[in-house]
Amino acid sequence: MKIHQKYILRCIELGKKGLGSTAPNPMVGCVIVHKGKIIGEGYTSPYGGPHAEVNAIHSVKDKSLLPKAELYVLLEPCSHYGKTPPCADLIVEHKIPEVIIGIEDPHDKVAGKGIQKLSEAGCKVTVGVLEEECRSHLKRFLTFQEKKRPYIILKWAETQDGFIAPDPKLRKSTPEPFWITNPYSKQMVHQWRCQEQAILVGTQTVLMDNPKLTTRDWNGKNPVRVVLDRDLRIGTTFHVLDKTVKTLVLTQVKDASCYSEGIVYEIIDFSKAIASQICHVLYQHSITSIIIEGGSRTLQTFIKENLWDEARVFTGTSIFESGLPAPKLHGHLVSEQSILTDTLSVFTND
């Protein structure tokens, strides 16, 4: 394996440690090498904290080695002041002579400016190492920057005979989830929730299931709850309006006197394409990734407008015979695995 690829792969490994905490910043890893030996490593801190390059440089015990070292990083070092000072300036300050970058940063405040700053300071800069792997790792950030929308993950569970919810007659009188999958699959879903910035459901899902949309079965942060509620039919007794988690309600009701304090409301036009409007609102709120969790109509809306990147579909052992049919999509099956009695199929929208 070429030496540059070896260290960029290590940067990807490090970057994964930031999953669920760095957004809307990208999950970047950085490695500093001196005479074939790694002398410093770092990855992006939770949002608002130091970037990968800063953490890697600070981890080097003998700073006198930096003017004779190479710095490897997944994404072009930033060149502007944001929550933190520019990483390119810190690299120049420590006189690091060579910088190897996975891919250029498409962010309009960077977009080659970091590379230019390093080159003008005398650094030898190499760009374009394992680009495909870097893009795959940074898919949330890149989708947000390039497509001006979040990375969209569709998720549902269906029965052996293709239903995602039973006939209403099989439900209890009080709203609660009707589980198709086993507890292990449920725990996996809670892990996914803490990895993404937001989670979205439609009105009917809330009224039927009264979900909490939190990470109760996994140690991690709760995603922002996004709820479609065209006519504000969801009452304050439902979990999604309990104000324990930041919640964004998309509605057509403009009368603010109908709003609940502590909940964020955004107006969209439900008579037009909904998914694209949702993406626009989420982009304005700097949400880089979202799980669309239901119901069938909401999921199918994103499929119809071709606004999805990945679909994660569980198939349980239940058979309903009648009920609400599962969404239909045409995607590329990339993986299939058993979660005890369930099957998890992952599709991409190629």
TrEMBL record:
Annotated metabolic or biological route of this protein: Cofactor biosynthesis; riboflavin biosynthesis; 5-amino-6-(D-ribitylamino)uracil from GTP: step 3/4; Cofactor biosynthesis; riboflavin biosynthesis; 5-amino-6-(D-ribitylamino)uracil from GTP: step 2/4
Binding sites annotated in the UniProt record for Zn(2+): 51, 78, 87
Xref: Gene3D superfamilies: Cytidine Deaminase, domain 2 (3.40.140.10), Dihydrofolate Reductase, subunit A (3.40.430.10)
Active site positions: 53
Residues reported to bind substrate: 193, 213, 216, 293
Domain CMP/dCMP-type deaminase: 2-118
List of residues binding NADP(+): 157, 179, 205, 209
Catalysis performed (reactions): 2,5-diamino-6-hydroxy-4-(5-phosphoribosylamino)-pyrimidine + H2O + H(+) = 5-amino-6-(5-phospho-D-ribosylamino)uracil + NH4(+); 5-amino-6-(5-phospho-D-ribitylamino)uracil + NADP(+) = 5-amino-6-(5-phospho-D-ribosylamino)uracil + NADPH + H(+)
Transmembrane segments: none
Entries under InterPro entries matching the protein: APOBEC/CMP_deaminase_Zn-bd, CMP_dCMP_dom, Cytidine_deaminase-like, DHFR-like_dom_sf, Eubact_RibD, RibDG_C, Riboflavin_Biosynth_HTPR
Cofactor: Zn(2+)
GO MF annotation terms: 5-amino-6-(5-phosphoribosylamino)uracil reductase activity; diaminohydroxyphosphoribosylaminopyrimidine deaminase activity; zinc ion binding
A Pfam family: RibD_C
Gene Ontology terms: biological process: riboflavin biosynthetic process
Role this protein plays: Converts 2,5-diamino-6-(ribosylamino)-4(3h)-pyrimidinone 5'-phosphate into 5-amino-6-(ribosylamino)-2,4(1h,3h)-pyrimidinedione 5'-phosphate.
Family note: In the N-terminal section; belongs to the cytidine and deoxycytidylate deaminase family.
Identification of the protein by name: Riboflavin biosynthesis protein RibD
Organism: Flagellimonas alvinocaridis
Highest classification ranks of the organism: Bacteria, Pseudomonadati, Bacteroidota, Flavobacteriia, Flavobacteriales
Gene: ribD
